[in-house]
Amino acid sequence: MYNNRLLRILPACLTGAVLLSACSSMDMGNAGAKTVATGSAGGANAENANASLEHCDRSLGTIAIIEDTSAPWYGILTGQYKLGSTVPVLKLLVQQSNCFVVVERGRGMTAMMGERALQQSGELRNNSNFGKGKMVSADYGLNPSITFSNNNAGGAGASVAGLLGGLGGVVAGLAGNVNSKEASTLLNLVDNRSGVQIAAAEGSAKSMDFGALGQLFGSRAAGSMGGYSNTAEGKVIVAAFTDSYNSIVRAVKNYRQQTVAGGLGTGGQLSVQGDSDAAPASSKKKTKNRQPTQ
């Protein structure tokens, strides 16, 4: 009986789907489809950048974004969440901020070196100008990582059910579609010449996914929720990286060089027993205070 009923309603459903597809329209530049890393950048100019993105009056040097594709977090990002590399988003944020000049050290390097190989083989025109000494060095390296990501942090469903408990099991079922998506990210800024870490910053973001809750109040209420009604994990991760990068920029704006007595990499101040090159602090003190004998 159930199968017969399904066969009767299936043609109507298919017809409705066809009609809906025929009435569909493309909304190019839709705000709900954007992440917080929106807009564009060209040189030192940025268009429609996120108003909360930190900005510098002058660039502090060149920077390459180095992503560890062998790290566990990258496997989760690309495998479980089906998301791509974080590099394009970070490149956009960095250039829009005008704090660093971005140089290519990722997959684009393959194409760059390919052009140079063509030049050396004699296949390119003589005035192609791909000779040696043209590439710009990267003063700094920016290393991203995702330290925690949760598709369903929970907690919201029970709260909604409690607030609207008078509506019974219907609300309880819809509340089960309410969950929070959150992510925590880290960015490390390293000086490429010395290998010294210049700055490090954590960022985080959290959004509420209301799921089917909008069905209870109608489409008008669902529309007022904006992008929260269909926020993807990727948007939360982008927001977390934006938060991380803002913290990096604030840190370098207030940067103060770390110093070590005797210079960096000369042995340090924490001596280890058995190290013949490090004299005990107590003997150094005695030698300093020793008076000449009469």
What attributes does this structure have?
single chain, 294 residues, alpha/beta, 7 strands
How is this structure best described in words?
The protein contains ten helices and seven strands. The chain is α/β, with parallel strands linked by helices.
Give a quick precis of the structure:
The protein has helices spanning about 1-20, 70-80, 85-95, 110-120, 155-165, 170-175, 215, 220-225, 235-255, 280-290, and strands at about 40, 45, 60-65, 100, 140-150, 180-190, 195-210.
Mean pLDDT: 77
Separate helix tally: 10
The SSE string, one letter per element, is HEEEHHEHEHHEEHHHH
Shape: globular
SSE-based structural type: alpha/beta
Describe the strand arrangement of the main beta sheet, using strand numbers.
Answer: 4-3-5-6-7
Major sheet summary line: 5 strands, mixed
Beta strand count? 7
| Terminal Cα span | 117 Å
Radius of gyration of CA atoms, rounded to a whole number: 28 Å
Topology overview:
Elements: H1 2-22, E1 40-42, E2 45-47, E3 62-65, H2 72-79, H3 87-97, E4 101-102, H4 108-121, E5 140-150, H5 156-163, H6 169-175, E6 179-191, E7 197-209, H7 213-217, H8 219-224, H9 233-253, H10 281-289
Parallel strand pairs: 3-4, 3-5
Antiparallel strand pairs: 1-2, 5-6, 6-7
